[in-house]
Specification:
The chain is built from no helices and 20 strands. It starts with 5 loop residues before the first strand and ends in a 41-residue tail after the last strand. The chain has a domain of 169 residues. It is mainly beta. Helix content is 0%, strand content 27%. Strands 1-5-7-10-13-16-19 form a seven-stranded parallel sheet, with no helix packed on it. The protein has a seven-stranded parallel sheet with strand order 2-6-8-11-14-17-20, with no helix packed on it. The protein has a four-stranded parallel sheet with strand order 9-12-15-18, with no helix packed on it.
Length: 254
């Protein structure tokens, strides 16, 4: 397995595998050139170690523990589902992460859980969350889940969220948190469909040009594509960049 600072094209399921970065100690906690290292599992383990207890024909996923790495980090084009915690969960001192073009569905808790906490004086922030698709049941988006009072800007734009979203604590010394040009569809009654929790400084939540509603508004179909009624927003709101590809009318196999 080759691992660098770009996580691309993973298809992750079953809550035992935590997609590398989920329990990743922040890149910023260490020196910027500290190598990204897998610390568990290690080679040459004792034969009684649980990592050896796999059976032929049965899928066996294990939790990876990694440390270090430099930034920026790119997390792109991954499919994550059936994960019990949060498929994507940047932790303390996380800076310059770009989480984009991922698909999430059937996750029981979160989709993206941005903790936003600091570590050893290093703040979290300068993070972009963009062009992701969170389908119905794909998990809740949580921003600043650790309720930190200080931090750097976070940019949430051009995503399609078909589940709940939550902006946690804002103060005069964190954020701003920019929510722009997203499609947000859920059954909550919050303004712009964004739950706001412990907002001490409302000016730090900047919400502009989002397309929001409930399932009854028929903004998107079950797969997250804009319906014909809202086709004028294709390429302008949400994760969708262009027209939905059509299935072939006929298929011939020779």
């Amino acid at each position: 397995m080759n691992i660098n600072k770009s996580f691309h094209g993973f298809y992750v399921f079953n809550g035992f595998f935590v997609f590398l970065l989920l329990s990743l100690l922040s890149a910023s906690v260490f020196a910027a050139n500290y190598p990204l290292e897998i610390i568990q599992p290690q080679p040459n383990l004792d034969i009684n170690n649980r990592f050896y207890k796999a059976y032929p024909g049965l899928e066996y996923n294990v939790r990876l523990a990694v440390i270090g790495g430099d930034y920026p980090f790119l997390v792109e084009d991954n499919t994550l589902h059936q994960i019990g915690g949060h498929p994507l969960g940047p932790k303390e001192g996380t800076q310059m992460w770009f989480i984009q073009s991922n698909r999430m569905y059937k996750n029981s808790q979160d989709s993206i859980g941005l903790q936003y906490s600091d570590s050893n004086g290093i703040q979290s922030g300068d993070i972009e969350i963009s062009y992701n698709l969170v389908e119905t049941g794909g998990g809740k988006l949580r921003i600043n889940s650790n309720q930190m009072a200080s931090g750097l800007p976070v940019y949430i734009f051009r995503n399609t969220f078909m589940d709940d979203v939550q902006q946690n604590r804002t103060t005069s010394s964190n954020g701003p948190f920019y929510w722009s040009k997203n499609v947000i569809v859920n059954e909550t009654s919050y303004p712009e469909k964004i739950e706001r929790w412990k907002i001490e400084d409302p000016s730090r939540v900047v919400v502009t040009n989002n397309l929001t509603g409930s399932a009854a508004d028929n903004i998107v179909d079950a797969q997250g594509y804009l319906t014909s009624k809202y086709s004028t927003y294709v390429g302008q709101r949400g994760h969708q960049l262009g027209k939905r590809p059509l299935s072939p009318k006929s298929l011939t196999v020779n």
